[in-house]
Design brief:
By secondary structure, this protein is mainly alpha-helical. It has six helices and no strands. The radius of gyration is 28 Å and the shape is extended.
């Protein structure tokens, strides 16, 4: 085999793109991005007028519907975790422990929640119980 055979094999034959050839694509992308993010002043004022700040004040757990359905989606599982984290953060330990216990009792044998979610919920239940007992 000669040195030329290696070059012709295509093994290292890397094609470099020409920046001029891609310039048309960039204009199309820019136009579609402008169309996607463009907002008139009237539309902006309407959004500004109707916008309300979402305040999290320790009440996420009230939005959770128990018993949970047959299959708990990832966003629903995240809501459960956020709810107990929020109760813990606001030092509402007894409510946090009760909330976790109600979830675990509802789902213990059914396998509705993934292992990591159950593990995290049990961790927060233990932390809440420790805080209750230490105070």
């Amino acid at each position: 085999m000669s040195g030329n055979d290696d070059l012709d094999s295509g093994l290292l034959g890397i094609a470099l793109s020409d920046p001029d050839a891609e310039s048309g694509d960039n204009e199309t992308k820019k136009t579609s991005q402008e169309a996607r993010t463009e907002q008139s002043e009237a539309e902006f004022q309407e959004v500004k007028r109707t916008y309300r700040v979402k305040v999290e004040n320790g009440e996420i757990w009230r939005t959770v519907r128990l018993p949970l359905g047959p299959q708990v989606s990832k966003p629903e599982a995240q809501t459960l975790l956020h709810a107990v984290e929020e109760l813990y953060f606001f030092r509402r330990y007894s409510e946090g422990a009760r909330f976790v216990r109600s979830i675990i009792d509802d789902n213990a044998g059914a396998g509705k929640l993934d292992d990591n979610t159950v593990k995290t919920l049990l961790y927060y239940e233990r932390k809440c119980t420790e805080k209750i007992n230490s105070s």
